Automatic annotation (TrEMBL):
The organism's taxonomic lineage, starting at the top: Bacteria, Bacillati, Actinomycetota, Actinomycetes, Pseudonocardiales
Protein name according to UniProt: STAS/SEC14 domain-containing protein
SUPFAM superfamilies (UniProt xref): SpoIIaa-like
Pfam families per UniProt: SpoIIAA-like
Record organism: Actinomycetospora endophytica
Lineage: superkingdom: Bacteria
Length: 250
């Protein structure tokens, strides 16, 4: 059974799944909810609470879930699952990588945090700093990369390249390898690299993660920038290295 949950802020659509979900639930609750959001031209921000009494969906309901999901996919801004059921948490994380919107899993005690996350989407990077005198852009990353993050980085890079032939250095700083929020973020990153890599002289990866030394060397073989890996404690050294080429030519 799927029930509407009306105790949410404006702009958030919330449902609760308990027992067995049937096609009638999608017809009576989910389809009208999605249709209203699309009609109002707003991105879908969905809070789905999965109760411990939830036991699954019928085969017919699963088909309705897939059918409605494909129809609403391009309108999805954010999807938060609130549950303590391990199998639902893992299934949400796996499927979320292939969805275009932001997907996160929260525990039952974290409902307020889930609502706050939905209402504050898309959120921002911890910081993007441009040292204009040195021609270096420093990006502080504190979460898996999203399309919006890549667009923000690209805007800074393009702003510099609009007045200069090349960007001397790009420094990516993160505590641990952040990865990508979903497939859309990964593909967007690949397109950014393909479109900009020949106009960036040096790329410094300031990350505490095993294997990045080797990854940086391999990347340097196929990309135009000179790529080096630095531990987080050596961020100042990484920035100095990224500015060396500019200092030599200016």
């Amino acid at each position: 059974m799927i029930e509407r949950d009306l105790d949410v802020p404006d702009g958030v659509d919330a449902v609760r799944a308990v027992g067995v979900v049937t096609p009638q639930d999608y017809h009576d609750v989910v389809a009208p909810m999605l249709a209203a959001a699309i009609r109002e031209h707003r991105g879908l921000r969905i809070l789905c609470t999965v109760d411990e009494a939830f036991t699954g969906v019928t085969p017919a309901a699963m088909w309705d879930d897939v059918r409605l999901g494909f129809g609403a996919m391009r309108h999805l801004a954010g999807y938060a699952t609130v549950t303590d059921l391990p199998w639902v948490r893992e299934m949400t994380r796996f499927s979320g990588f292939f969805l275009p919107g932001h997907v996160r899993v929260f525990g039952m005690a974290e409902r307020a945090e889930a609502l706050r996350w939905l209402t504050e989407l898309p959120g921002e990077l911890a910081g993007v700093r441009l040292q204009a005198a040195d021609g270096v852009i420093i990006v502080d990353i504190d979460h898996p990369l999203r399309r919006e993050d890549i667009d923000l980085i690209a805007a800074e890079v393009d702003g510099w390249l609009g007045e200069h032939r090349e960007l001397p250095g790009l420094v990516l700083h993160a505590h641990g390898f952040p990865g990508w929020e979903n497939l859309s973020g990964l593909l967007h990153h690949v397109r950014f690299v393909a479109g900009h890599q020949r106009r960036v002289e040096r790329l410094a990866l300031v990350v505490d993660a095993p294997g990045l030394d080797i990854a940086a060397r391999l990347a340097g073989l196929v990309l135009h920038p000179e790529v080096r890996h630095f531990p987080v404690a050596a961020e100042d050294e990484a920035i100095r290295w990224a500015t060396e080429q500019h200092a030599l030519t200016s």
